[in-house]
Amino acid sequence: MTDAELAAQLAVDAGRILLEVRASGQFEGKALGKEGDRAANAFLCDALRRLRPDDGLLSEEEKDNPERLAKNRVWIIDPVDGTREYGEERSDWAVHVGLAVDREAAIGAVALPGLDGGIVLRSDAPHALPEPAERPRLVVSRTRPAREAVAVAEAIGGELVEMGSAGAKAMAVVRGEAEIYLHSGGQYEWDNCAPVAVALAYGLHCSRIDGSPLVYNNADTYLPDLLICRPEWAHPVLEEVHKLG
């Protein structure tokens, strides 16, 4: 099984586990989110340690092992991206399984199990991007839209679309539900490694909001901002961000 096939299979299987936990009726709200995180993380970490024992591993739900810093292949996972949305039984949450190679997001799968039938978007099976909307749509947090995103939307005549998890927002651009995902409110490597790998495979622009590259497998896993957008919007958006200072 290739790395990409493994990432996709694990993301799908973890999503199935999460739906089973939710359907059990034993948990709700924050308790549901906590149990979902625990169950999905245990499955993913066990599978990766068993199937890719020589690779590093970084998970939101595991104590960080600094040994990963000496490895050029590191799996970066988020068992439930959007724990709040998952606990609220919404559909805009995701499972991230990404592989950074030489500190770049090389391979990824993002499962969206909450959608009807569930889907998984993967870096080894990109499709042509749908036609863009005439008026650019920017996906933003439904609770705390980034200041830069709000200002850029106003400057380019864009429309704000509220959505939950980072993975759901990034995949909205991949799926043609938005043209731009601009985030500046703080993230960690597991929030965007897999989505960035998928977005790159689909031909989207991915960078920090100053235009610099996204670099993974750092000692400090904080990665505060990113831009994922259709290529034609990269320069206009980066220019507007630069104007904001």
UniProtKB/TrEMBL annotation:
InterPro entries reported for this sequence: CysQ/Inositol_MonoPase (IPR050725), Inositol_monophosphatase-like (IPR000760)
UniProt entry tagged with the keyword Hydrolase: yes
One GO MF term attached to the UniProt entry: 3'(2'),5'-bisphosphate nucleotidase activity
Positions of transmembrane segments: none
Name of a matching Pfam family: Inositol_P
UniProt-listed CDD domains: CysQ
Official protein name in the record: 3'(2'),5'-bisphosphate nucleotidase CysQ
